[in-house]
């Protein structure tokens, strides 16, 4: 796997309103800053304006001026195309999206680009017909309009992001960051994605199925009951762990633990444990030459067959194929406590 080129669509005619700057800055931060100590080459990022008259002219919107030498024709040559947002008028008032943009998105998809939307960018992918028959999401404030306007799209208003392989969509704001880190994880592996997330001081991995409606994305560091037990569980993933074990460690009832963990992370204790174990397995597959049986045991997923089952279900590839796809670091042996 490789980083490749990323083209980010910017609606040049209207400029970039201040409230859309966050979605635009996410791909610029994740893909635009070279991280050659993690992967060399890093991504090649291009901001592609929708203006057709003078690509080098400045466009303003909400106090922002944009100047880019790239236009819609450059989308077709990219490995990944990202639409961070569309004008509010196109969402709230049903104003038409630029036909040149829709045509360019169709050409890029036909050329084999991976198509991605953040927040209201899903309206552009839907208008291009790229979401027909697919599951997709957007910010929960706009999913009703998306579903009504594009009935062929299977809109899910409850998740952070949806990965349909060659087409991916996310909810708004921080969920867009989750999706971009998910792309890095797909392209370059869990280790590099985790290192990048650490540099950005954000959670390394929030599964796409996590709910949009949560009180906290991660437990508060001053939560004396929940945070220590989750840290303890991460350090003991190779051991059999149950909800009762975690509740006992946290000195609370299983029902209280269940409620507090779901409120804090949007997922259940068992699903949280499975996500942590899969992340551990990915890290071991990338950074060690341990046999599959040992990876299953150390990650807490049990037998090699059980590891393969969960890995295929949640990543779409087998553990062996995953290891072959991410040979970025020389394998090293680690202690395997039998």
UniProtKB/TrEMBL annotation:
Q: Which SMART domains match?
A: HTH_ARAC (SM00342)
What are the UniProt keywords, alphabetically?
Answer: DNA-binding, Transcription, Transcription regulation
Question: Where in this chain does the record put each HTH araC/xylS-type domain?
Answer: 227-325
Q: Which domain of life is it from?
A: Bacteria
Originating species:
Streptomyces coffeae
The UniProt entry, under PANTHER family, shows:
ARAC-FAMILY TRANSCRIPTIONAL REGULATOR, HTH-TYPE TRANSCRIPTIONAL REGULATOR RV1931C
The reply to whether DNA-binding figures as a keyword in the UniProt entry is: yes
Q: What is the lineage of its organism?
A: Bacteria, Bacillati, Actinomycetota, Actinomycetes, Kitasatosporales
- Which intervals of the chain form a coiled coil? none
Protein known as: Helix-turn-helix domain-containing protein
InterPro entries reported for this sequence: Class_I_gatase-like, DJ-1/PfpI, Homeodomain-like_sf, HTH_AraC, HTH_AraC-typ_CS, INH-QAR
Read off the Gene3D superfamilies from this record. 3.40.50.880, Homeodomain-like (1.10.10.60)
């Amino acid at each position: 796997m490789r980083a490749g080129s990323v083209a980010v669509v910017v609606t040049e005619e209207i400029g970039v309103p201040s409230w859309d700057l966050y979605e635009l800055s996410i791909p610029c931060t994740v893909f635009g800053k070279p991280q050659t100590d993690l992967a060399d080459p890093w991504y090649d990022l291009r901001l592609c304006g929708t203006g057709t008259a003078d690509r080098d002219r400045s466009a303003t919107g909400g106090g922002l001026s944009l100047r880019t030498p790239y236009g819609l024709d450059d989308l077709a040559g990219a490995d990944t195309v990202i639409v961070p947002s569309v004008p509010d008028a196109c969402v709230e008032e049903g104003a038409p999206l630029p036909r040149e943009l829709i045509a360019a998105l169709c050409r890029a998809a036909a050329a084999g680009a991976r198509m991605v939307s953040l927040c209201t960018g899903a309206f552009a992918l839907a208008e291009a017909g790229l979401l027909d028959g697919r599951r997709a999401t957007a910010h929960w404030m706009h999913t009703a309009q998306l579903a009504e306007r594009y009935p062929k799209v299977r809109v899910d208003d409850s998740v952070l992001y949806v990965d349909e392989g060659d087409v991916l969509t996310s909810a708004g704001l921080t969920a867009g960051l989750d999706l971009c880190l998910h792309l890095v994880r797909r392209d370059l592996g869990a280790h590099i994605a985790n290192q990048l997330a650490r540099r950005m001081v954000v959670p390394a991995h929030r599964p796409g199925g996590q709910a949009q409606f949560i009180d906290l994305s991660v437990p508060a560091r001053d939560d004396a009951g929940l945070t220590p037990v989750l840290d303890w569980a991460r350090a003991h993933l190779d051991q059999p762990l149950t909800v009762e074990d975690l509740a006992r460690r946290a000195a609370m009832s299983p029902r209280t633990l269940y409620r507090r963990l779901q409120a804090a992370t949007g997922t259940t204790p068992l699903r949280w444990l499975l996500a942590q174990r899969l992340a551990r397995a990915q890290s071991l597959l990338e950074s060690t030459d341990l046999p599959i049986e040992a990876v299953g045991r150390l990650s807490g997923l049990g037998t090699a067959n059980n590891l393969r089952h969960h890995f295929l279900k949640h990543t779409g590839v087998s553990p062996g194929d995953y290891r072959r796809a991410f040979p970025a670091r020389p394998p090293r042996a680690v202690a395997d406590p039998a």
